[in-house]
Specification:
Blueprint lengths: L10 E4 L6 E2 L2 E2 L3 H10 L3 E6 L6 H10 L9 E3 H12 L4 E6 L2 H9 L2 E3 L7 E3 L7 H12 L4 E3 L5 E4 L2 E4 L1 H12 L4 E2 L6 H10 L6 E5 L2 H10 L3 E5 L6 H4 L8 E3 L2 H4 L3
Parallel strand pairs: 1-4, 1-13, 4-5, 6-7, 6-8, 8-9, 9-12, 13-14, 14-15
Antiparallel strand pairs: 2-3, 10-11
Helix pairs in contact: 3-4, 5-6
């Protein structure tokens, strides 16, 4: 299937939720899939909107599924948000975070810390401990002028038991309370893909963005000028493709089929 694209694909940027796994259940035989990637001599980076975990935690999860991948080959929207803020505020500073350990650690590494007043920004993502207290604090700060940054707009994410609320649901609550729409850093913003291209040193037309969501993974890859592939192992379905204005270059049942396994 990859051979149908010209110029030849030399690298993959893989989404994770819905592509590699659903919650803690792998999609297919991941060890064999990554062996096939090695066989095809493709560079690979995993780039996910999931900001709840660190690259080290994602690497550990992959290892538990039989795949060895160094943390430097894993990017998420928390890292991208931290880099975005660092460009604006090289000295670091206080921020109000609505999120889990992945977001907290990414910010700390680049010199940002949690605070509830005089913050540089409110940065929000998936937070399974989200509460009215956090919503009220974020609302007060944004209404007082703090920029509102969202890690990613995914309203849901896939689990073996079906879709559950995602970061986009939390962003929607904050936007409803403040009347301010967030600046989105993760997909469909091209920023995450641009960082992946820089790390791999590959041309955008020789790099395939692979994901399970048309509105984030595929659209983000297209905005970055990359070739794109939709796998039907996560959120978007064949029916969703009907009438979609800019279809992906490739569609496959899952990553294994995409790789010709």
């Amino acid at each position: 299937m990859l051979n149908s694209l010209q110029p030849q694909i030399k690298a993959l940027v893989l989404d994770m939720d819905g592509v590699l796994w659903r919650a803690n259940k792998p999609v297919g035989r991941l060890a064999a899939v990554f062996a096939r990637i090695d066989e095809l001599k493709l560079k690979v980076i995993c780039a996910t909107n999931n900001a709840t975990s660190t690259p080290e935690q994602f690497a550990e999860k992959l290892a538990g599924m039989g795949v060895q991948l160094a943390p430097k080959f894993i990017l998420n929207s928390a890292l991208a948000a931290a880099h975005y803020l660092k460009k604006q505020h090289p000295q670091g500073g206080p921020v109000y975070l609505v999120g889990e350990v992945g977001l907290q650690q990414a910010m700390q590494v680049l010199g940002f810390w949690q605070a509830e007043k005089d913050v540089l920004a409110v940065v929000a993502g998936m937070d399974r401990q989200f509460s009215y207290t956090k919503l009220a604090a974020a609302t007060r700060l944004i209404r007082n002028g703090a920029p509102f940054i969202g890690t990613n707009p995914d309203k849901t994410f896939p689990t073996p038991d079906g879709l559950v609320p995602g970061a986009g649901s939390i962003l929607a609550a904050i936007e409803a309370a403040t009347g301010v729409a967030p600046t989105i850093i993760g997909k469909p913003s091209p920023y995450l893909y641009q960082v992946a291209l820089e790390r791999m040193g590959t041309d955008r037309l020789e790099t395939l963005a692979v994901g399970d969501r048309l509105e984030t993974d595929v659209l983000g890859g297209q905005r970055a000028g990359m070739r794109t592939a939709l796998v039907l192992s996560g959120v978007s379905t064949q029916h969703d493709l009907v009438g979609w204005p800019t279809p992906p270059d490739l569609v496959a049942a899952d990553l294994a089929e995409l790789l010709g396994m």
